[in-house]
């Protein structure tokens, strides 16, 4: 394995020890594997995709004092470990522009950015996406479902992070929208089955809730 990739892997692994916000090392590892697969299919630069995937959540604002502080941490790490400034800038640009902002992606410009954003979003849907949502809700002290909380589909990321919600509501706030926000053909194909599985899950959950 490339030496820098190996170091980035170690950096991310150490960073995520003991996290319960849905951003553990295994999420990063899945995003990296999916990014590599998409990169090959989309003819993207494999090194850039793998590095951005490995580092994308180290900069997450939930894990840092602010988004800017998180990005600065990654920027410093890259400057210390990789001499190619152009590559480092590309990686930082991908990480800073890929997060989901309540329906509008900030516009990930390069094919590598599109690939890594898609890989991250694919991990938020399907069986793993369902599990992450319930784990995150539990860690935040939210109910798995609360019929008194109205379902909203127009929430921004800020809102669904800060306002009272439930795991089931999060499917409508974000997860059901992700399939149509994907950038690449390869990711759209992979999303079909995962999306259908989530719809089936929520439908069955609500049927059981209503004792139908
Ligand atoms: P990402 O790393 O994909 O940007 P987030 O940081 O928004 O995702 O959230 C991490 C995980 O927690 C994802 O699986 C996401 O769907 C889930 N999650 C985020 N916000 C909520 C919420 N308000 N309720 C339940 N799950 C959430
Ligand atoms: Ni992520």
TrEMBL record:
Residue span, HD domain: 24-125
Keyword Chloroplast: no
Protein name: Phosphohydrolase
SUPFAM superfamilies found in the cross-reference section: HD-domain/PDEase-like (SSF109604)
Alphabetically ordered keywords of this record: Hydrolase
Superkingdom field: Bacteria
Record flagged with keyword Hydrolase: yes
Pfam families tied to this protein: HD
UniProt GO molecular function: hydrolase activity
